[in-house]
Write a structure and sequence with these properties.
alpha+beta, 8-stranded mixed beta sheet, 10 helices, 28 strands, HET, Heterokaryon incompatibility domain-containing protein
Length: 550
């Protein structure tokens, strides 16, 4: 299953230093025609290979490991007492030669909070150390099992033959007379992975994201087809030779993007679209992925954000389609994990690096400096974050109070006319709440390219006929991006984040741009009660102040 043929799949993740705390020992007696299943936590050979199961719990009752049945599970678990999905997983694991299987609801004591916290913190090693993850991708609950009757016509590929006249021995099949060449083509539905996996019931579940990401190999049992994926390739039942590099669908986005920073922003975007039954599990259900990156890049984790990515990692926004409502915050407001709904970095964050070669565009953060960040978590540093503070040195805040009515997660644009040009501010609010007073906290300013248009060029190494579209960019605008913050009542210099803002492009001069900021500063000169402290001055001679985000 790829372990010998693929170098990247030849070993488990380095996080998998030991076996799980508990495993199901599974066997089948041909003589008695009976399955033997029991829970093991001792006397497991250290190099034992095991499989894992990803599944949807659904709204049906099924057998779980509880404090009351822990002792009996160690003796015997009747096959007939298990759900159809669990039974199918046991049979399939045995067919592949596995005698150990890990299933969350049967290997974690479900009515013991301490055991759940302890085991949930080990997901990186549990799934990363497995030899195969069996994914019940098509099942909405445990009663549906792993296997489905399918309409093969809906997933059948189309094969085409084309003839290239006057070319001998080009890649493909040659005519019998050798004068021309015939090329064989397979037409593949580019959305088949999405229909089989991303749109399935299983992948609407947030916990599944890290299960798939961390597992070296995953076998998707679904409708309409079976898919096998590893860290190197994806094999479809209807198209066995698909390469991951051609169909950028693998959850391990590191192979698709050049930098860890871009990879993490995409992980956050994909993960935040999934659902959690318990909203406080948001960081817990991603802790295994976070540990993977922390171990690989030696970076510090701060409630879903990496210290090394600050301050740019603060520029996330809540997707328009998923308004979060007036929900209580989970952890610090500056972390995307404090919000429900889909999170986007591409509104602002992606402008800082181009998607083509990852070179940074010119930007400056002379008016913004993070002095200290503190977070308080559960014993698992990558799990639930209880609270956090970010101490910041900044220039004067601008009064950004919106007076046109309620504030909404979708974009609200405000235009200010300055000199001969105009200056617009795009607001992206985090929730539906109305804030009586808001301020704009500048993070950085830069020159932003504009007036893009599409053109095409031929790729040097591509086959004949391959085209790639590239934007041809001309013109430069002055741009500023930062946070929308609201003061905490009766707490001097303490603010919460309520959104992000951007000046998408300005047609006036840079001096006009600065004049606008200076005009805003003047109105706040006497509001020293707004800040915790008065600091020094920046390189431009502007007064700096200290505030705290919570």
């Amino acid at each position: 299953m790829g372990s010998k043929l693929h170098k990247r799949c030849s070993h488990s993740t380095d996080l998998a230093s030991s076996l799980p705390s508990r495993l199901l020992k599974i066997n089948f007696s041909k003589m008695k025609h009976r399955y033997y299943i029991r829970l093991c936590n001792k006397n497991i050979p250290p190099n034992s290979k095991y499989a894992t199961l990803s599944h949807v719990w659904g709204n049906v009752n099924f057998v779980k490991l509880l404090k009351s049945n822990l002792a009996s599970f160690k003796e015997d678990i009747p096959m007939s007492s298990l759900s159809k999905t669990f039974q199918d997983a046991i049979k399939l694991a045995l067919r592949f030669g596995f005698h150990y299987l890990w299933i969350d609801s049967l290997c974690i004591i479900q009515d013991n909070g301490d055991d759940w916290l302890k085991e949930s913190a080990l997901m990186a090693s549990i799934y990363g150390g497995s030899s195969l993850n069996i994914s019940a991708t098509g099942a909405q609950n445990g009663n549906e099992g792993l296997f489905f009757e399918r309409d093969l016509n809906s997933i059948r590929t189309v094969n085409l033959m084309t003839q290239v006249e006057g070319q001998k021995n080009c890649s493909g099949l040659n005519d019998s007379n050798g004068d021309n060449s015939r090329l064989a083509w397979v037409c593949v539905d580019g959305s088949m992975y999405g229909r089989a996996c991303r749109e399935s019931p299983l992948y609407q579940r947030a916990w599944t994201f890290q299960e798939r990401f961390l597992s070296p190999r995953t076998l998707h049992l679904g409708n309409p087809q079976i898919i096998f994926e590893c860290h190197t390739r994806i094999h479809y039942e209807t198209f066995p030779e698909t390469r991951t590099t051609n169909f950028e669908e693998r959850g391990t986005v590191e192979s698709q993007y050049h930098t860890f920073r871009r990879a993490w922003s995409i992980i956050v975007g994909n993960y935040s679209k999934s659902r959690l039954t318990i909203s406080s599990d948001k960081l817990i259900a991603l802790s295994g992925v976070a540990k993977h990156f922390a171990n690989k890049y030696n970076v510090e984790y701060l409630a879903g954000i990496w210290r090394e990515h600050l301050p740019l990692a603060l520029l996330w926004s809540v997707d328009d389609k998923n308004g979060t409502g007036s929900l209580p915050l989970r952890g610090p407001s500056w972390s995307w994990a404090s919000r429900n709904g889909s999170i986007r970095y591409d509104r602002l964050y992606s402008f800082v690096t181009t998607p083509y070669d990852d070179r940074p565009s010119p930007w400056e953060a002379n008016d913004f400096k993070i002095l200290d960040v503190q977070v308080r978590t559960t014993p698992d540093l990558y799990g639930h974050c209880l609270c956090g503070t970010m101490r910041i040195e900044c220039v004067s805040l601008l009064d950004g109070t919106e007076t046109s009515g309620g504030l909404y997660p979708n974009r609200t644009s405000k235009t200010v006319h300055i000199g001969e040009g105009s200056f617009s501010i795009n607001y992206y609010f985090d929730d539906w709440r109305d804030h009586h007073k808001i301020y704009l906290l500048k993070i950085f300013s830069r020159k932003m390219m504009g007036n893009s248009k599409l053109s095409y060029q031929r790729s040097r190494n591509a086959q004949w006929g391959a085209l790639s579209l590239l934007p041809q960019i001309s013109g430069v605008h002055n741009c500023e991006e930062g946070l929308i913050i609201a003061p905490v009542a009766r707490k001097k210099g303490i603010f919460t984040r309520v959104g992000v803002y951007q000046t998408p492009g300005y047609s006036g001069t840079l001096q006009d741009f600065e004049n606008m900021r200076n005009k805003g500063r003047l109105s706040l000169e006497n509001e020293l009660s707004l800040y915790q402290e008065v600091s020094g001055v920046n390189k431009a001679g502007d007064q700096m102040y200290i505030i705290t985000l919570i």
